[in-house]
Amino acid sequence: MKQFLVAALMVVTALSSVRANLGDGSDRIDDVYGSLDQRQLRDDGTVSVLYHKDRYLYLVIFVNDRSVSESYSHINGTDLSEKEIAKFLKLNAAGGTWIPANTSKEQRFKRSDGRVEATYGSSTGRRALTVREVGRRSDQ
Predict the structure, then answer these.
(1) Residues 6+ apart with CB under 8 A from 50
(2) Strand, coil or helix: what is 42?
């Protein structure tokens, strides 16, 4: 029984160390999202950071060293699959569920707690899934 508990703890620890999501600090996101391609201090005091890992680009907006907006896209510019969109939404569910709120131009989702929204559409010429805290736009 002790061996099972140790093995289960190792699996949980390993899984939690390979994911990052909205609300995490920059150190955790730096560790998980791979190579830092660009960091920019923006006029409003936020910091945008572009990461590249495997076949994805991650654009993260930080306020006070905490992620408030994250955009996920393919490095080659192709569309994310429904499975990939579901994966990124699940990473940012935080115990809630995602409710579709689609419009004719883009896919939209709202988290059941009302604190986070997501949009899959064109962002700076690239189709991306953007997950952000409600009340904060990713282009701020």
Answers:
(1) 36, 37, 38, 39, 57, 58, 59, 60
(2) coil
